[in-house]
Amino acid sequence: RAKERGTGHVEVYAAHMHEMVVARLELQIRLRRALADGEFFLEYQPIVDLGTSQVTAVEALVRWNRDGEVVGPDAFIGAAEESGLIVPLGEWILREACEKVAVWRVSDWDIGLSVNLSVKQVLSPRFVRTVEGVLAETGLSAEVLTLEVDEEVLLEDEGDAVARLGELRELGVRLAIDDYGMGYASLAHLRELSVDSIKIDPSFIADLGRDDTVTLLTHTIIQLGRDLGVQVVAEGIERPEQLEQLRAMGCDHGQGFLVARPMPAEGVDSLAGGEAGPDL
Ligand code: C2E
Ligand code: MG
Ligand code: MG
Ligand code: MG
């Protein structure tokens, strides 16, 4: 009896797994078509200097226009990584964003660009050449571009990611660690790896001023960043008190819905040379 029930469970589980695998494959096929059909687009979220309130850079964030419905990256980046589509998709994202920023910079606006990378891209054999090529094509100087990678890339150093990042760094491109604070990469270690900036995870900023440990940790990260010459960007600023506290702690840069939401390229035009928003 028990054995029969057990087998039944396994069958239900197997059927469920099968459905999930099929759904995943369907998504991967749709994504491939979406890239060919031009259904992806980028939004740009301003990053501001907390000292001057000026917009110093924008972070490119990918979206998918799926039959008129906008789908966010959390719903498809994983599938794109699994199928390998992230490599051509990532190249499209990089080129599209660099083209836009090159145009914004023509009018003497010293704006930087941040682009998110998956470790799969970093490890793909031609990636360094791709970045070099896109910079050459768009005429963007390398130091304008910051590539954001997650902390795990450095911690595990899967298949030589650190060496690849070093080659990118040699092109003159800047490196940022995204979602810092969730893993365990020490700031000193990041400094050794020539990381230019770290982005403090939004979960820290959410609890700022509410949880003493988090507040202390955030303060320590900002302090250490300053001492080591690593720029610190606070992500996920939503409330005025967070902004005040981060400024008081001497945090260099900030990003979040309070500062400005991700916006289409046309929205960025109107920010040229100005402050990000009324809440600053
Ligand atoms: P991320 O790189 O940490 O990007 C920041 C995410 O936080 C964005 O979500 C942004 O819309 C959101 N955000 C910004 N300010 C606030 C705030 O004040 N409050 C809250 N609650 N959220 C805020 P999004 O666009 O959904 O992107 C999610 C993640 O998907 C990104 O996290 C990044 O890891 C990944 N991603 C986005 N675009 C790309 C891309 O072009 N390539 C790759 N490989 N990954 C991407
Ligand atoms: Mg990011
Ligand atoms: Mg990220
Ligand atoms: Mg982040």
Largest sheet: 8 strands, mixed, barrel
Strand pairing plus helix content: what structural class? alpha/beta
Ends apart, CA distance between termini: 67 Å
Mean pLDDT: 91
Indicate the multimeric state: single chain
Strand order of the largest sheet: 1-2-4-5-6-7-8-9
Query: Which strand-content bin applies to the residues?
Result: 15-25%
Shape: globular
Task: Classify the helix fraction into a percent range.
Answer: 40-55%
Ligand kinds = ligand C2E, magnesium ion
- Radius of gyration over all CA atoms, rounded: 21 Å
Which H/E pattern describes the elements? Answer: HEEEHHEHHEHHEHEHHEHEH
The number of strands is 9
Instruction: Count every helix, treating DSSP H or I runs of 4 or more residues as helices.
Output: 12
Low-confidence stretches: none
